[in-house]
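Hey, resending since the last one bounced:
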Amino acid sequence: MKTILGLNIRVYIQHFLFGIVIFIAVYIFALTPISGIKINVPLLLNFSINTLLYPFSRYAYEAILNYIFSEKTAIWVNIKLFMIIKFFTILLCWGLAIIIAPIGLIIILINFLINKTTSNK
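The structure tokens again:
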């Protein structure tokens, strides 16, 4: 299976495309007079870095959730509430990707080292 720094290529591309969509949506919102945000180079650089790091941020978020809730855990919730929560977690992972993505990279490194040591035995 092809990977990018330990992430499945399909998952990486999927999350990267979501990051691009979020980048475009936030950029368009920032262009509106209602937002009151001035577009400048540091802001665009921040948006770009968040977009590039979003797949690793999302990986960290999902790894933490899988650790807390096993895959056998079923949570019944209204679909509208679920979609709202999902939307906010996507925005949170994108907006804080600079902070969260290093955690994802550390998790990937730990998984790599564990798999490497178990495969050598």
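The chain has four helices and two strands.

Sorry for the duplicate.
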